[in-house]
Amino acid sequence: MAAAGQGDGTVGKALDVLDMVASHGRPVRFSDLLEKSRFPKATLYRLLQTLTHQGMLQLDPETGAYTPGMRLVRLAHTAWAQSSLAPIARPWIDSLASETGETVHLAQLDGGQVLYVDKRNATKPVDMFAQAGKVGPAYCTGVGKAMLAFLPEDQLASAIDRQSFFPHTPHTLASAEALRDELTTIRAQGHAFDREEHEPGIICCAVPILTKGGRVLGALSVTSTTARTSLTALEQESGRIKEIAAHIAADAESWRFPEQG
Q1: What are phi and psi of 191, to 5 degrees?
Q2: What is the average per-residue pLDDT within 118-141?
Q3: CATH class for domain 9-75?
Q4: Which terminal Cβ of the chain has fewer Cβ within 10 Å, N or C?
């Protein structure tokens, strides 16, 4: 993250600072930001002042801590409504969650990682990492692998370079080579699995959401636990998940490129 704004001038630096504040998940003081910042003290202070004056950050005068500002919240809501699949997909994921009784995740790629844009809980909810608004790894999640598998080679190579291949569980894919082998299988069968690769006990079947031209818009998954079901049982839902994904893709294309006349 720290290098994201390098070469992008002041705007890139400011976005790096916004990322730093947001990544803490709580109000954060200047001293804490300075410890992790690549910027000199004076530069960091100047960027924080500018972002605060512009409403992108807000400073609590009593605690001296920074949090995302209301202007940023407004922009985030607009981006969610105009750029994410969530508003378009809502009725479809509602239907899929109702049919399966399991957790349904809707995700998109963000810089080679998975951004969860919506979620419906199972009839009996289970605590897990994936929540709307969270960013997770692509190499060890069903939705991540479903999207990676259908990227053009240049985009795929770039996305793979961004993966950490951290071993979250004994089932996590440990290398780019292992990931590429699995992506070949996913392209052939049209769906992906999470085999307890990110969290112990959490499994899923996921499919990509593709335009008619094959461009990746996002991914959809039905997620459960090994205590409740099996991968074999989840795979039986793959046909229905693909149908729902196709409906979402069609609605997305109609919304973005409405027919004239």
Answers
A1: -150, 160
A2: 87
A3: mainly alpha
A4: C
Backbone angles phi, psi at 72, to 5 degrees: -65, -40
Q: Which two tokens stand for residue 103?
A: 């957790």
Tokens linked to 66: 């920074």
Confidence bin at 255 (pLDDT 50/70/90): low
CA-to-CA dists, residue 37 to 8, 30, 67, 72, angstroms: 16, 10, 16, 21
Among 17, 23, 21, which Cα is nearest to 134's?
23
Mean pLDDT of 124-152: 91
| β-bridge partners, 218 | 209
Tell the CATH superfamily of the 84-256 domain: GAF domain (3.30.450.40)
Q: Find, among 240, 251, 241, the residue nearest to 212 by Cα.
A: 251
- Here the tokens at position 162 are 């961004």
Quote the pTM value.
Answer: 0.76
User: Which two three-digit tokens encode residue 111?
Assistant: 């810089």
Number of Cβ within a 10 Å radius of residue 256: 11
* Collapsed DSSP state (helix, strand, coil) of residue 85: coil
**Pair of tokens at residue 153:** 């080679």
Only one residue has tokens 């957790």, namely 103
Is the distance from CB of 132 to CB of 119 less than 8 angstroms?
Answer: yes
Rounded distance between C-alpha atoms, residue 17 and residue 105, angstroms: 29
Number of Cβ within 10 Å of residue 211's Cβ equals: 14
